[in-house]
Amino acid sequence: MKAGLRAVGGATVLAISALWAHGQAPVADPRAGPAQPSEWRAIPTGTTQPLMGVWGRTERDVYVVGHGLILHYDGGAWTSAAVAGRLVAVWGSEHDVFACGDEGLLLHSRDGGAWAVVPTGTKGNLDGVWGTSARDAFAVADSEGTILHHDGARWSAMTSGTAMPLAGVWGSSSTDVFAVGFEGTILHYDGTRWSAMARGTTQHLTGVWGSSSHDVFAVGFGGTILRYDGARWTLVPQDATTQFLTRIWGSSAQDVFAVGAAGTILHYDGVRWRAMASGTREFLSGVWGSPGHGVYVVGRNGTLLHRPNR
Asked: Which burial class, exposed, middle or buried, applies to 294 when counting CB atoms under 10 A from its CB (0-12, 13-18, 19+)?
């Protein structure tokens, strides 16, 4: 089997981490209009390696992870640290930051200290990480429904109830966590166990974020956007794109961003989704913002974009 491919339910599918590393071929999108002036500013990064994930505590403490490196912004300048391995996602709490990636790689830094490798017990590609604190964090992988939980001392495997590859995780609290993955898989954790949710799509899902427990979005292949209202998931009609959407983040229910293939950035204002001029055709794989201070987007070939607050 070729690198980056995995057998799922008798079918061979491309692993999420491989898609993000090399990009998915952009689809011909008849909805794309003429080029518009970009609302985003490109930030030089000094690398052509894929940048995969972005997260920050504040606008003066931002982390970007990618293949073989971690970038950090302190409010004045960006610095780069070389690491061994390909990182895909990053998340942190008040004192701790976790970065995860291929073959079970998970790095930890506390209070800005050196990055240390943390044992995870899996060789699956860790594609998503999120938590409520350093004593209550979750990571998901693209191998047989792997979900790990950190209790402050160690990472341990949870029973997910699925064998599907998982790519994204987010929650509103320790008793309200969502994980998404291949073939429309959506799981929910209530603080005791994970259970499958009815989702209304068979498209691969790779990103999840919400403004509350009763307002959650999931995104994935083919421009798929789902929304959860606390009772059910429904497919969101939108005419902004058919490109693969990788990640989603928002500052509120009326200010949500989704990013993806071919430089796609969508914005939701609480009424409708619209395509934004990103100024790039690169494959975009991560988005995060500091409410009131702007939004960062990362992608292939060292792409780092910033949109100031408006």
From this structure: middle
Q: Please, which pLDDT band fits residue 249 given cuts at 50, 70 and 90? A: very high
Total-model pTM? 0.91
Q: Give the count of domains, the chain.
A: 1
CB 225 within 8 A of CB 239: no
CATH number of domain containing 199: 2.130.10.10
Range of the domain at 150: 13-21+35-307
DSSP string, 179-207: EEEGGG-EEEE-SS-EEE---S--S-EEE
Are the beta carbons of 141 and 180 closer than 8 angstroms? no
Q: Are strands 147-150 and 136-141 parallel, antiparallel or unpaired?
A: antiparallel
184: region left, alpha or beta (phi > 0 left; psi from -120 to 50 alpha): left
Which helix H or strand E contains 83, and what residues bound it? strand 78-92
Residue 303 lies in a domain: yes
* pLDDT single digits (tens) 45-72: 999 999 999 999 999 999 999 999 999 9
Longest dimension (CA), the chain: 53
- Is there a domain that residue 150 lies in? yes
**DSSP helix/strand/coil, 236:** coil
Nearest alpha-carbon partner for 280 in 266, 262, 267 = 262
Any domain includes 99: yes
* Tens digit of each residue's pLDDT (9 = 90 or more) over 162-172: 999 999 999 99
Flag whether 160 is in a domain. yes
